[in-house]
Every structure is written in C-alpha cells, then in structure tokens.
Amino acid sequence: MKKNILPIVAFCSIALFTSCDELKQAANTISTTTTPTKPQLTNDEVISGLREALQVGIKNSVNLTSVTDGFLKNADIRLPFPADAMKVKQKALDWGLTSQVEKFETTLNRAAEEATKEALPIFANAITNMSVKDGFAILNGGNGAATKFLKDNTSSQLVAAFSPKVKEAISKVKLTDYWNPIINKYNSAMTISGGEKINPDLNAYVTDMAIKGLFHMVEQEENKIRVDPMARVTDLLAKVFGSIK
Description:
Elements: H1 2-34, H2 43-65, H3 86-94, H4 98-116, H5 119-129, H6 135-139, H7 145-172, H8 175-193, H9 202-227, H10 235-241
Helix pairs in contact: 2-5, 2-9, 2-10, 3-8, 4-7, 4-8, 4-9, 5-7, 7-9
C-alpha cells in the first residue's frame, strides 16, 4: 500500500510546483503588459509644446489684462507713479493735488490695459520665431523657464513692436492731460528754486511696465500648465508636460 502512495505524492508535488511556476509567469506577464509607459518625446515635439504653452499663456494673459482694471486692480502688475518722478508726486501731494495724482496713476494703468489689446499678435509672432535648440533643458528647467527664455530672447523686439501701440493708447486715454498739470507746476517751482526739472518718457515707462506685467502673467499661466493636468488644453501639451518627472 505504501508503495502505491509514494508515486501519487510525488506526482502531486510536481504538479503543485509546476502550477506555482506558471502562476508566477502569468503574474509577470500581467505586470509587464499593464504597466503604463510614457510616450517617447522628440526635441522638436518638446519645442512645439513649449511654444504652444506660451501661446496659451499670452492669450490668457491678454484676456485678463486688456480689460478695465486688468492692470489697475492687479497688485502684482499695477503701474505705480514713475520711480524717477517720485519727487514730483511728493510735491504734488504737498500742494494738495491728491486727486490729480490719483487720476494720473489710474490713467497710466488704463494706457497699459488699452495697449495690451494689441499685444497678442506681437507676442505670438515673437513666440513663433524664437530660436530654441534644447527644448528638454527648458522643459525640465522648472517654473517659469519657458517664459524666462522668451523674455531673454525677444524683449528688445517686443519693445520696438509694442511701443507704437502704447503711444496710441496714451493718446486715446489722454494720459498727458492728467500728467501735464502736475509736471508743469513742479517744473515751474524748480525754475524758481533752481532745482532739477523732471519729465520722464511716459511712452517708454508704460511700454516697459506693460511688457513686464504681461511676462509676469504668462509665467503664471506656464506654471499652471506645468502642475495642473487640467490646464493642458491640447494633446500636445498633455504629452509634453505630462512627461515632466
């Protein structure tokens, strides 16, 4: 009887071990086939994705800033009284011209808001034509890396293209109508006292501050795309920025 049992036990053991091996192989197969793999990206795809992110960023930024109070009520980008004319502001306040100073500062921001309406094609052209060699370096460069690259490589062109739009906006909102009474009174007082007359270039000031404000907003939009999958509104943005570790 014992002789008959031994072969049965041996057969069951072999079958058990064989089943375990098959289960392990099956598990490995399932593990291999169900593990998602990130799509491989080319440098050209990354560059296209970066440009697209900036395009989305500038479009959203223009929509936010080119409306009434888009600059004025945004503490991060609001245009203050020109820094090189702070003596003028202080004197104007001392003379009781508080209302005129407030109107001037408001209209400064109105000029930026008006000019920004024309910013989208100017920035879009700069984004399209900017030269990018290593897209991966910018993609993996952290928050604001693409915006910084755009700023470093297109600022002079943007100033040249944007300045005429600012000049038109200054005329449209009648900025100088609020500025001239303040500066004329100040410079008249300086003539009497022998002090230095001041009259900053408002066109250059508004141009510079408006562009800085737009870059600030574009960087915020870029960072949203980096961290929030819901902000990746196209397949390319999802593919490129979904690859960031």
